[in-house]
Write a structure and sequence with these properties.
Helix content is about 80%, strand content about 0%. The protein is mainly α. It has one domain.
């Protein structure tokens, strides 16, 4: 069970590192507008659900814990905590002009379609990856066994 919790913590963690460089008010406002337009708050939980689906495909025993894990994710991934971090992350990653360009794009029909389809496509990609990884799990186990044998052999030589 500790292994499951550790895997979940890794899977749901966000690497958001705030830099000390000042961000202009205009840049921060543009980042906030973009984050809201992209509906990051909703997509963050959709991503957690898609990740949970992929994890259940890979480890079916997690199905019994799905509701507990998703309840935990909703409490940990609160928008009050992560909203400002996302705004800061986008403000640091893009110039104000680039943020305005992204806002303009996401207001187009193609941008709206991208906002609608990309989370689903990412979820499908995660599921495809989980299925492929599961189907080739024995290959990984063999590779690990070979490496373990190599390590044992090198320990015996020294």
């Amino acid at each position: 069970m500790n292994r499951i919790i550790a895997l979940l913590l890794i899977a749901f963690s966000q690497q958001v590192i705030a830099q000390d460089a000042p961000v202009s008010a205009g840049r921060e406002a543009a980042a906030r507008e973009l984050v809201e337009l992209m509906n990051v708050e909703h997509e963050m939980m959709s991503g957690a659900t898609a990740m949970m689906d992929a994890m259940v495909l890979q480890s079916p025993q997690l199905e019994d814990y799905r509701d507990v894990i998703l309840t935990w994710a909703r409490s940990v991934l609160s928008w009050e905590v992560f909203g400002p971090k996302f705004v800061r992350m986008y403000a640091e990653a893009f110039t104000e002009q680039e943020l305005r360009d992204l806002i303009a794009f996401y207001r187009t029909p193609t941008g709206q379609k991208a906002l609608t389809l990309l989370p689903e496509l990412v979820g499908q990609g995660a599921q495809m990856g989980a299925i492929e990884a599961r189907s080739r799990q024995s290959e990984l186990q063999q590779m690990i066994q070979r490496r373990a044998a190599e390590l044992r052999e090198s320990d015996n030589v020294q």
